[in-house]
Design brief:
Blueprint lengths: L9 H15 L11 H8 L3 H13 L3 E4 L2 E4 L6 E5 L3 E5 L3 H7 L7 E5 L6 E4 L3 E5 L3
Parallel strand pairs: 3-7
Antiparallel strand pairs: 1-2, 4-5, 5-6
Helix pairs in contact: 1-3
Length: 134
């Protein structure tokens, strides 16, 4: 339930509710989540609160938004990348990088720079870095 009298903002309460539904499997991977108006009517809240809640979940990588709506993101297999030496940084991708890697909005990329090699750009939500001994 959403409590308008609570100390926690309404949009964060809604994000918590949707996140819990995803974790419990009530909203399974690939399923479209209800449209803004449905949440507005169900919880008697503003469109802005719904949009802010969706933005939080998109930033967490739990949902993706396309032209036809927002969907629960399917869990992807993770790739393990061994790194013995080099530099690893994380950043938000450019739009072309986001499209190429099929990343949801707000999902970072990992940039691995190793001596004598071109930088590797990998999806931050699907990559495990295995740091080996020198």
């Amino acid at each position: 339930m959403i409590d308008p009298e609570a100390d926690r903002p309404i949009y964060r309460q809604l994000a918590d509710l949707i996140r819990d539904q995803i974790k419990r499997g009530e909203l399974p991977p690939g399923q479209r989540i209800p449209v803004e108006v449905d949440y507005m009517l169900q919880y008697d809240i503003s469109r802005d609160s719904v949009r802010r809640a969706i933005a939080i979940l998109r930033g967490e990588g739990l949902i993706i938004t396309e032209r036809r709506g927002s969907y629960v993101r399917s869990p992807a297999d993770r790739s393990v990348v061994p790194v013995k030496r080099g530099r690893i940084t994380a950043r938000i991708p450019t739009e072309p990088e986001r499209r190429k890697l099929r990343l949801g909005e707000g999902v970072p990329i990992l940039v691995i720079e190793r001596e004598g090699r071109d930088a590797e750009i990998l999806p931050g939500d699907r990559t495990v870095i295995l740091i080996g001994p020198d």
